[in-house]
Protein: Phospho-2-dehydro-3-deoxyheptonate aldolase
Amino acid sequence: MQDIGATSTASPAWSATSWKGKPMAQPIEYDDQEHLSEVIKRLENLPDLVPRYEIDQLSLLMQFAAQGQLFFIQGGDCAEAFSDIRPQIIKSKQELLIAQAEILSDGLGVPVVPIGRIAGQYSKPRSSCMETLSCGSVVNAFRGENINAPNKSSRSPDPERLAMGYHFSAVTLSALRTFRNRNENAINAAIRPSSGVFTSHEALHLPLESSMTRHAYNTSAHMLWIGERTRQISGAHVEYMRGLRNPVGIKIGPSTSPTDIVELLDTLNPGKMVGKNVIITRFGAKNVKEKLPDLVQAVHASGHLPVWLCDPCHGNTYATPSNVKTRFVEDMLDELKTTFMVHSEIGSSLGGIHLEETGEEDVTECIERASVNLDTAEFPEYRTLCDPRLSRSQGIDFVKTYADFFRN
Ligand code: PEP
Ligand code: MN
Structure:
């Protein structure tokens, strides 16, 4: 589907498929391109997954967050599993985000709005496109349920999975609407969508994302983000995202320079709309003090006013000697607190927290340094398809600790 494009926010050359002329990082190689095109055509004709007025509603809330008057808690799986599309699991994710929003709102004294990494977080970038199994054979890496099956014997990309992803997203949204707490107070009702939590995912799979783009709205989620691995200024992902009317996130790691970030903002948001972009910093606890101040100052000097979120997960990942990917909760808290301090000292404000977490209680994927060490850590319930998630109680304790720190 050709899209006529946004009016004031994009240059005339933008369309939902103008990314096709640009180099693409993290591409997905399909054996059967015709099959892919046929699935994409089918998706173009399916209904919007989220209402456009809710996308505009989130854009408005972003303006408040950019100015320090509102806070976001964005959280969910690194990669959602199709096998987790079950009522109790969906409900537990929604309940966790809403509980975290309430704890943070009490502590921070501002409205706190939940955004799930949910109902579409099915496409993953990977640092290596191949994976060596313990038996020695080499297979394609798992790239998210939209692309290939986590089951190791069948890792070929299958276009039909994109249609499955659409339907699973629709079912998840429908479940979220059913579970939404009807008793929430009037203030919360006004700042939450019909699904109780706003939805978001990484816009990695561009044929899919453009098939869901109508009149410059990506209707598959309220918010989309560009990953750390696909944020090249002249690349396909930035080209696609620059024309969208949705709030657009950008993940940035420690290699990002002040010039990089200002160029990205100028490209994604030439009109310098307040809160249009969400910069999600994921530096690693050790790097925040050194890297973040220059970036915040450069952005401030450029006249952009984005929302700043802290992702304390992706810069703090370790492999155990037996090669289990994990994170120490203490490092994550350290990154979050330091990020908050840097913003406060410069007169900027932290607008939210971005976490990988699950509503399930028994998951053992992230660990506490106080109780285990890396050499002996055990992970009896390690179920994530990709990166390690905080369990429900780790997720609750995490925001409680931050709220207490903020109060004092
Ligand atoms: C992620 O959010 O799961 C991810 C891959 O993050 P990043 O792009 O920041 O590495
Ligand atoms: Mn991840």
